[in-house]
Design goal:
The chain is mainly alpha-helical. It has two domains: 69 residues, no CATH class; 237 residues, Orthogonal Bundle (MetI-like fold), CATH 1.10.3720.10. 75% of the residues lie in helices and 0% in strands. It has 14 helices and no strands. It starts with a helix and ends in a 7-residue tail after the last helix.
Length: 333
């Protein structure tokens, strides 16, 4: 099944390569003019365009791009002057760390809340779940982030300055995984680990409030469906305890749609957390993509889109494996 999923994903990745290439060429602006600077004349811009290969026919540019991809070369970013692969490798851990921490926090609240709402329909817990779901999908992430900064940094003074992954008083931990929490723990530098955790709290909470809504809603709906199923009634009739029925049978069967929702939320959040990264000056791939779009940096935008597509394929593969672990009736072969 795993090899089959990978084979099915190849046409998707190929389509992403074609579409991202065509869409970047449709962007307004001229990367050669940006690279040359505002004082450059037409001859200098034409020379740079030739050096960048932008003077060639579109179909020739595409095949050259595909040939570079086959060698693992994503091109060079005009905005940074560095290889796109190196930029993505440096920035991707920041986005992944932020997204994963937000999802862990969101699941820690949303799943128990959804279970409680399903087991107590019509009570204040159920109404609280609905209020949180409505508030989570109604408030924009940038507004939530600004409010949290104003309250906890400006007014209360208990949060660190929202300026990146680490306060200036700390030194970056030795690079191992790119995740500051993991790298600081490996190095045994718990002061830096605590500093990185403090920097994560507000942006992760901002994303968690946004992702909490679909997870809690799906958990509640899946649990209501599972609790009304025949196998749950049979388990209760057999005299099994409430906890065993609730967590051993109902919740385990309700986890499949929840895992699907979690995968979709993760994919969307990783690509859409650019507003949070901008508000908190977080050096992730979202802000990198926006900066590349502003200057029509073809290589950087194409690299970002392709990286997102590959992550999405990997995530779908992990979800399929999780299905088999949750429900033995679903095999890996």
């Amino acid at each position: 099944m795993i090899l089959g999923r990978v084979a099915q994903a190849l046409p998707v990745v190929a389509g992403v390569v074609v579409i991202s290439f065509l869409l970047t060429r449709a962007l307004p602006g001229d990367p050669a003019a940006y690279f040359a600077g505002p004082a450059a004349d037409a001859a200098s811009i034409a020379e740079i365009r030739e050096a960048l290969g932008l003077d060639k026919p579109l179909i020739q540019q595409f095949f050259l791009y595909v040939g570079d991809l086959a060698r693992g070369d994503f091109g060079t970013a005009i905005s940074t002057g560095q290889p796109v692969a190196a930029d993505l490798a440096a920035r991707l851990p920041a986005s992944l760390e932020l997204t994963l921490c937000a999802l862990l926090l969101s699941c820690a609240v949303a799943v128990p809340l959804g279970v409680l709402a399903a087991t107590r329909p019509g009570t204040w817990v159920d109404h609280l779940c609905r209020v949180l779901v409505t508030a989570g999908v109604s408030m924009p992430t940038f507004f939530t982030g600004i409010v949290l900064i104003y309250v906890f940094y400006y007014l209360a003074g208990i949060a660190p300055s929202p300026l990146g992954r680490l306060d200036f008083i700390y030194i970056e931990p030795p690079h191992v995984t790119g995740f500051y929490l993991i790298d600081a723990a490996i190095a045994g530098d718990f002061a830096t680990w605590l500093g990185a955790l403090k920097q994560l709290v507000l942006p992760a909470t901002t994303l968690a409030l946004f992702t909490l809504a679909p997870i809690a809603r799906m958990t509640r709906a899946a649990m209501l469906s599972a609790l009304s199923a025949d196998f749950v009634r049979t388990a209760r009739a057999a005299g099994l305890g409430r906890r065993k029925v609730l967590y051993g049978y109902a919740l385990r069967n309700a986890l499949l749609p929840v895992v699907t929702t979690l995968g979709m939320v993760f994919s969307f959040t990783l690509g859409a957390n650019v507003l949070v990264e901008k508000v908190f000056a977080w050096p992730g791939i979202g802000s990198y993509a926006v900066e590349a779009l502003v200057v029509s940096d073809y290589a950087a935008v194409q690299g970002f889109v392709l990286a997102m597509a590959l992550l999405f394929v990997l995530l779908n593969l992990l979800i399929d494996i999780a299905y088999a672990l949750i429900d033995p009736r679903i095999g890996l072969s």
